[in-house]
From TrEMBL:
Gene3D superfamilies xrefs: 2.30.42.10, Carboxypeptidase-like, regulatory domain
Name under which the protein is recorded: PDZ domain-containing protein
Gene Ontology molecular function terms on file: carbohydrate binding
Domain PDZ: 572-643
Naturally occurring in which organism (per UniProt): Persicimonas caeni
PROSITE patterns: PDZ (PS50106)
Keyword line: Signal
Pfam families: CarboxypepD_reg, PDZ_6
PANTHER family tied to this protein: BOS COMPLEX SUBUNIT NOMO1-RELATED (PTHR23303:SF14), CARBOXYPEPTIDASE REGULATORY REGION-CONTAINING (PTHR23303)
Claim: Signal is one of the keywords in the record: yes
């Protein structure tokens, strides 16, 4: 039986394993990002003596001539006019590369910024296509003072909260002793790596001070920065329980003039001390296993004499305990699901020491399960109020594989991450939390050592080819799934024009991005030129969606863009002015979906939209979209197939309990999504 219904309204959002997945969620990549993969195509390399080759560029992608690239064992090369280098006659093994050039800098200490490259024993190929990025240095100058008076001989260091190294983002780090202040308190830093940072200042009789947060662009000059040092203060005391026994607690001092919190651990006698802190008002927090967390507000630290603050800790109440790995080590940022005898579940998050605590539970006992993206769930454990519990996560599984190009040869420089996960039981974390692995290996091999058992899809990004996804990979507890092969191929392009829906005038400066909420990588995007035209290169072949955003206009998703390898696909998009309370518009059928053991199921339909007006019902199972079975597809892949262009119908095959199978065709329309709370 086939039914047809034409409706000019639409919305499609989904729920995965009882968790809502809204397509317009804040977890989507930043629509204002402006990053295109403009890396030059590296030529294919013939087999031979292992080598390392690539190019050195600046932050705009321009080649740097005359840059030196070296390894820790003495091999070196100088880049040519195209910024290219080649290290030859290398032996198999691990190499760590650094690059330098006049008038350029690279962030991070040498041990941190060097790029690791592996030449495998079983491969006579090399690693080609590396791209090392150097940046123009920034300059910072100013004065160090204390109550307006110059402070000489102050030691200045740089704390980087965020900075890009030679081939990607670095973890926070400190560069010590970059300069000292002069007799008049002045200082000048002329080779500062760009990034988000603070200057740290140490001087006698003064507390360690920090500048305000600075964000320096390549080549930027910042002058007249004044850092005012505060007199040094001390906060000390004892930590005891209600019976007066010492407690070896962990104490954190935060707030007030501190940009970063300070942490100390009380000794066996319960004594602690914070030295060399700026005078001011702070919050003191003490934590210890088996005790309630104690927080003391408004701790006044004066410069003229030490401030004594004793802490009395009460035995923990409620539900509390610790999550550990199979080796007994604490697991930070894991989740604990508490299931009561009746009512809703409660989720807790562990701290840096693996501890969790809930002071005011509604029931006397719960069934607790620890959850982590890197381990098998802990066994369900009965926990009761007032009794400390230890939840032990079980061993996860490992995955190893390789990335190959269209010719089947290894791709030796890429980044791999988790795109999607399907697991049994709750999953209160996003797939991308598993992290990214940057790989430079002549064999094209990658490995994830510890993952929660389940079915995974991995995504690969390279400079040379389009991003690509793996087939489903099953991860089993305590074992390794090997032999995974991800094949990458030629990328496509999407071009077009963005115009005003009312006037037809081109819209310049609009952000146009490939809308791919499941991708672990930054969105491929660009901005329209003065004629409203855009051109996005490096797009993975397949069915894609665009998201177009411009201040003052309603953000619009244009779906159903068919991208082929090596060619260009044109999609023009009209956007209209945004009205108060509106968030986004796109096209679909107006149903909320979830994936169950039965397949992709309609959880509910939305009033006033095609699915509801046609008569689709909750618990209807979607078997096929436009004649293609959805069995084996991820939920987001089904969503992508159902979304499309306005006015273009979509055919669904439905299985309804008690009625059997039937097909229906619904014309997609436009729906405006309202902002939350409206």
């Amino acid at each position: 039986m086939k039914k047809t219904h034409i409706i000019a309204a639409l919305l499609l959002s989904t729920v995965a394993a009882l968790t809502f997945y809204w397509l317009w969620s804040a977890d989507a990549p930043n629509a204002d990002s402006n990053q295109l993969d403009n890396a030059q195509q590296a030529p294919a390399e013939a087999p031979g003596t292992p080598f390392i080759a690539g190019r050195v560029v600046d932050s705009t992608g321009r080649p740097i001539e005359g840059a030196t690239v070296d390894t820790t064992d003495g091999a070196s090369a100088v880049t040519d006019a195209a910024g290219e280098f080649r290290l030859e006659e290398l032996e198999p093994g691990a190499y760590r590369l650094d690059a330098r050039a006049d008038d350029f800098v690279s962030a991070g200490p040498e041990a941190v910024r060097r790029v690791e490259v592996v030449l495998s024993d079983d491969s006579d190929a090399g690693v080609a296509g590396l791209e090392l990025v150097l940046r123009r240095p920034a300059e910072v100058s100013g004065r160090i003072v204390a109550s307006g008076r110059a402070v000489s001989d102050a030691n200045i260091s740089i704390y980087y909260l965020s900075a890009d190294g030679l081939d990607g983002r670095l973890d926070p780090f400190v560069t010590d002793g970059v300069a000292k202040s002069g007799a008049d308190g002045s200082f000048a830093l002329d080779k500062v790596a760009p990034g988000r940072l603070r200057l740290l200042v140490e001087a006698k009789e003064h507390a360690l001070a920090e500048s305000r947060e600075l964000y320096l662009e390549p080549g930027e000059t910042l002058e007249d920065l004044v850092i005012d040092l505060a007199p040094s203060a001390t906060v000390y005391g004892e930590v005891v329980d209600t019976a007066g026994n010492p407690v070896r607690a962990e104490l954190v001092l935060r707030g007030g003039p501190l940009a970063r919190s300070r942490k100390v651990t009380a000794d066996t006698s319960g004594t602690y001390a914070f030295h060399n802190v700026p005078a001011g008002t702070f919050i003191l927090e003490a934590t210890a296993s088996g005790y309630r967390t104690e927080k003391i507000d408004a701790v006044e630290a004066a410069a003229d004499e030490p401030t004594s603050v004793d802490v009395v800790m009460e035995a923990a109440k409620g539900i509390f305990g610790r999550v550990v790995d199979p080796n007994g080590e604490p697991v930070a940022s894991s989740f604990v699901r508490l299931r009561p005898p009746q009512g809703r579940w409660k989720f807790l998050r562990t701290d840096d020491d693996g501890r969790f605590q809930w002071d005011n539970p509604q029931h006397d006992s719960y069934t607790a399960t620890a959850i982590s993206q890197h381990y098998e769930l802990s066994r369900p454990t009965h926990v009761t109020v007032g009794a400390e519990s230890t939840l032990e996560l079980r061993a996860g599984g490992a995955v190893s594989g390789r990335v190959v190009g269209p010719d089947g040869r290894p791709v030796n420089s890429f980044t791999v991450g988790v795109e999607a996960i399907e697991t049994k039981g709750p999953r209160p974390y996003r797939p991308r939390s598993a992290g990214l692995e940057k790989v430079n290996d002549s064999s094209g091999r990658f490995r994830f050592d510890s993952l929660r058992p389940g079915t995974y899809w991995f995504r690969v990004q390279t400079n040379r080819y389009a991003s690509a996804s793996s087939e489903p990979v099953v991860v089993r507890a305590g074992s390794e799934t090997s032999g995974v092969t991800i094949r990458v191929g030629e990328a496509g392009r999407v071009t077009g024009q963005v115009t005003d829906a009312k006037t037809g005038a081109p819209v310049a400066g609009a952000s146009v991005m490939i809308f791919d909420p499941t991708s672990p990588f930054q969105a491929n995007s660009t901005r329209t030129d003065a004629r409203g035209r855009y051109d996005i290169d490096g797009v993975a072949p397949g069915r894609r969606s665009l998201r177009v955003a411009k201040k003052g206009y309603l953000s619009t998703v244009s779906a159903g863009v068919s991208v082929g390898p090596g060619g260009a696909t044109t999609r023009d998009v009209q956007i209209r002015k945004q009205k108060p309370g509106e968030a986004m518009q796109f096209h679909g059928i107006g149903a909320v979906l979830m994936k169950t053991d039965k397949g992709v199921v309609i959880r509910n339909t939305m009033d006033g939209h095609p699915a509801a007006e046609f008569g689709l019902q909750a618990r209807d199972v979607i078997l096929a979209v436009d004649g293609e079975p959805v069995d084996g597809l991820r939920l987001d892949e089904v969503v992508e197939k159902i979304r499309g262009q306005q006015g273009v119908p979509v055919e669904l095959e439905i299985d309804r309990e008690g009625e059997g199978r039937f097909s229906t065709e619904i014309e997609r329309g436009s729906v405006v999504v309202k902002k939350r709370g409206r």
